[in-house]
Write a structure and sequence with these properties.
The longest helix has 68 residues. The chain is an all-alpha fold and 495 residues long. The radius of gyration is 26 Å and the shape is globular. The chain starts with a helix and ends with a helix.
């Protein structure tokens, strides 16, 4: 009897221990789930408007192309050439240099040095406006540049006219990129998405009014394009200066003209890091032009890169979100939160990328019928579809890791990584596979995918081996130095 009672008590004790263990496990799982949900909300607050805004900006170009295409074939070819080659070259430099502002604003906001954000924004305006001005000769001398590169005279002449119209667009990007990064650091970029949506509607209406209704031709289309880039900028500037950012915008100051060198250095390293990445796909198109049946291969490649470009807008949205979250948490002093944010965004982005990978991998050549009726082009797209699918899969991870680098301020390190992986690994392997082994466009693309894969692996190693507690210390010292310099300049100016 006593033995039975003892066994029951022991069993009850064991049951209670098991119940306690189960409760602890359930509690841990619930905490982890709540933590993931909380982090996901913070990420999507930045990522969703960023993705939509990029789709809208991409859409402005598509709308302009559609209306210019009704004006004439020469005008369409000229606009496409200037926009995809010259303007994209300049955008790469401006966007790259502007990304330094993401580091500065994100870390300052996380450290609650709110007054520094407005100062960083003004300094970035100065540096990028000078940069844009230095790029103007490309647009002023477009015709002789294109003729020297062997372009047809009529297209080169028309491209010279188009490029002059696009000069205001170059300066529009300066305001657009900087305001977006300033607002993203504060998770206030929903206003950008609203402005982008309104702008698309206005652009469609004005393009129809000026090119179809009033028949102003190319001038009408270009006026509408310029307005499409500047209307959201005006809205963003009103939002920033109109009292909606009162903690971070305290007005214009002459302090913005001082201590520009740290901004210049960070902007230059950021510019190199992102520019070499953005130009990578352009080199793929240039290498394809020398193959047999180049027209069919370029058409098929253009369709694939167009799809890849649309999907890249999602990846760039996650890149912005990653940058903001990492910079904010490092500035706040939380290494654990920064690491958790990285893991969360990699999981979310990878899941979306895997779904898209499966979709495009199995859809294959049927995808091409949206863009062409040529059976030869459809067959070539069918052959390239697996490479497109793998590109989309890698896009789900690689830009996120670039966002980590920008948020942590590693631009100079990643610039060397990008140069080595893309231009010393990817392109040489692509040339060897494409030209020596006669795999043509598939060989070039495989080589460039290998370069991207190597770069992704290197960034994964750098991110995983990083001492994030040390990164917090470095970030706080950096923010403290910026703040002290600002205070010293304020004191000397007051004196």
């Amino acid at each position: 009897m006593a033995d039975d009672l003892s066994e029951k008590l022991l069993k009850n004790g064991e049951d209670q221990e098991e119940i306690k263990e189960r409760n602890i496990i359930v509690e841990i799982e619930e905490r982890l789930r709540d933590k993931i949900l909380s982090e996901s909300k913070k990420l999507w607050v930045v990522a969703a408007p960023a993705i939509f805004t990029r789709f809208s900006t991409f859409g402005v170009n598509v709308i302009s192309l559609a209306f210019i295409g009704h004006i004439g074939a020469t005008e369409l070819a000229a606009y496409a050439l200037v926009f995809t080659v010259l303007l994209r070259f300049c955008i790469g430099i401006i966007l790259g240099m502007a990304s330094g502002l993401e580091t500065l604003c994100g870390q300052s906001y996380g450290a609650k040095q709110y007054q520094m954000l407005g100062l960083h924004l003004q300094r970035s305006w100065i540096v990028l406006t000078i940069t844009a001005t230095l790029l103007l000769p490309i647009f002023l001398f477009t015709t002789p540049i294109l003729k020297a590169l062997g372009q047809q005279d009529d297209i080169a002449q028309m491209a010279g006219i188009v490029s002059l119209w696009l000069i205001p667009v170059v300066y529009a990007y300066v305001v657009s990129f900087t305001c977006q990064m300033y607002l993203q650091a504060q998770s206030k970029n929903m206003i950008i998405a609203y402005l982008a949506a309104i702008t698309l509607i206005i652009h469609v209406f004005l393009s129809w009014l000026l090119t179809i209704k009033f028949k102003f031709g190319l001038s009408g289309a270009m006026i509408s394009t310029i307005l499409a880039f500047w209307i959201p900028n005006i809205g963003q500037l009103v939002f920033v200066m109109g009292g909606w950012c009162k903690d971070t915008w305290t007005g214009f100051t002459f302090l913005a003209l001082k201590d520009l060198w740290p901004i210049v250095k960070l902007s230059l390293s950021s510019g190199v890091m992102l520019s070499v990445e953005l130009w990578y796909n352009s080199i793929l198109v240039l290498l394809t032009g020398n193959f047999k049946n180049a027209k069919i291969q370029i058409d098929a490649l253009s369709i694939c890169l167009n799809i890849n470009g649309w999907e890249m807008m999602i990846a760039l949205g996650f890149m912005s979100a990653t940058c903001v979250r990492v910079a904010n948490e490092l500035g706040r002093g939380s290494s654990k939160a920064a690491k958790f944010s990285i893991m969360t965004v990699v999981l979310i982005s990878s899941a979306i990328g895997f779904i898209l990978f499966l979709f495009f991998f199995f859809l294959r050549g049927r995808l091409a019928y949206v863009f062409t009726t040529s059976q030869e082009v459809v067959e070539e797209v069918d052959n390239l579809s697996p490479l497109l699918a793998f590109s989309i899969l890698m896009n789900s991870v690689q830009p996120v890791l670039s966002g980590v680098a920008i948020g942590a301020g590693w631009q100079s390190i990643v610039a060397y990584v990008n140069l080595g992986c893309y231009y010393l690994v990817g392109i040489p392997i692509g040339v060897f596979l494409g030209y020596v082994l006669q795999l043509q466009v598939r060989g070039v693309w495989i080589g460039m995918l290998i370069g991207t894969l190597v770069q992704t692996i290197v960034l994964v190693i750098i991110t995983s081996k990083t001492d994030w507690d040390k990164q917090v210390t470095l970030t706080q010292l950096r923010v403290k130095r910026w703040s002290e310099e600002d205070d010293n300049n304020s004191t000397s100016q007051g004196a």
